[in-house]
Design goal:
This protein is mainly alpha-helical and 74 residues long. Helices cover 64% and strands 0% of the residues. The protein has helices spanning 7-18, 27-36, 44-68. This is RND transporter.
Protein backbone atom coordinates (compact mmCIF):
# COMPACT_ATOMS: atom_id res chain seq x y z
CA UNK A 1 0.00 0.00 0.00
CA UNK A 2 2.97 2.31 0.61
CA UNK A 3 3.87 2.11 -3.08
CA UNK A 4 0.41 3.31 -4.17
CA UNK A 5 0.69 6.35 -1.89
CA UNK A 6 4.22 7.38 -2.87
CA UNK A 7 4.08 10.65 -4.82
CA UNK A 8 7.62 10.27 -6.17
CA UNK A 9 7.03 6.81 -7.64
CA UNK A 10 3.72 7.77 -9.24
CA UNK A 11 5.11 11.01 -10.73
CA UNK A 12 8.09 9.04 -12.06
CA UNK A 13 5.71 6.50 -13.63
CA UNK A 14 3.68 9.30 -15.24
CA UNK A 15 6.77 10.96 -16.67
CA UNK A 16 8.30 7.73 -17.99
CA UNK A 17 5.78 5.00 -18.79
CA UNK A 18 2.88 7.42 -19.08
CA UNK A 19 4.50 9.67 -21.66
CA UNK A 20 6.91 7.31 -23.47
CA UNK A 21 7.80 7.39 -26.32
CA UNK A 22 8.22 11.15 -26.17
CA UNK A 23 8.77 12.03 -29.82
CA UNK A 24 7.10 13.19 -32.01
CA UNK A 25 4.45 13.51 -29.27
CA UNK A 26 3.74 11.57 -26.07
CA UNK A 27 2.17 8.23 -26.97
CA UNK A 28 -0.80 8.61 -24.64
CA UNK A 29 -1.57 12.04 -26.13
CA UNK A 30 -1.72 10.56 -29.63
CA UNK A 31 -4.00 7.74 -28.46
CA UNK A 32 -6.32 10.18 -26.65
CA UNK A 33 -6.57 12.33 -29.77
CA UNK A 34 -7.42 9.20 -31.73
CA UNK A 35 -10.18 8.28 -29.26
CA UNK A 36 -11.61 11.82 -29.26
CA UNK A 37 -11.59 11.67 -33.05
CA UNK A 38 -13.91 8.67 -32.96
CA UNK A 39 -11.44 5.80 -32.37
CA UNK A 40 -11.94 4.67 -35.94
CA UNK A 41 -9.68 1.76 -36.78
CA UNK A 42 -8.47 1.14 -33.23
CA UNK A 43 -7.54 -2.48 -32.61
CA UNK A 44 -7.41 -4.36 -29.28
CA UNK A 45 -3.69 -3.65 -29.05
CA UNK A 46 -4.37 0.09 -29.30
CA UNK A 47 -6.87 -0.07 -26.42
CA UNK A 48 -4.35 -2.05 -24.36
CA UNK A 49 -1.80 0.66 -25.16
CA UNK A 50 -4.18 3.33 -23.82
CA UNK A 51 -4.63 1.29 -20.65
CA UNK A 52 -0.89 0.70 -20.23
CA UNK A 53 0.18 4.30 -20.80
CA UNK A 54 -2.83 5.72 -18.96
CA UNK A 55 -2.52 3.61 -15.81
CA UNK A 56 0.09 5.87 -14.13
CA UNK A 57 -2.26 8.81 -14.58
CA UNK A 58 -5.11 6.79 -13.08
CA UNK A 59 -2.86 6.11 -10.07
CA UNK A 60 -2.09 9.82 -9.84
CA UNK A 61 -5.79 10.71 -9.94
CA UNK A 62 -6.48 8.09 -7.25
CA UNK A 63 -3.73 9.52 -5.04
CA UNK A 64 -5.07 13.07 -5.47
CA UNK A 65 -8.55 11.92 -4.45
CA UNK A 66 -7.21 10.03 -1.43
CA UNK A 67 -5.21 13.06 -0.28
CA UNK A 68 -7.98 15.61 -0.90
CA UNK A 69 -10.73 13.55 0.74
CA UNK A 70 -9.12 11.69 3.66
CA UNK A 71 -10.87 8.74 5.25
CA UNK A 72 -12.75 9.44 8.48
CA UNK A 73 -12.09 5.97 9.89
CA UNK A 74 -9.36 7.17 12.24
Amino acid sequence: MQLLNNWRIIILLCLTLGLAPFLPEPHIWGKLKWIVGGAEGMQAADWFDVLLHGFPFILLLRLLIVKLFPSKKN
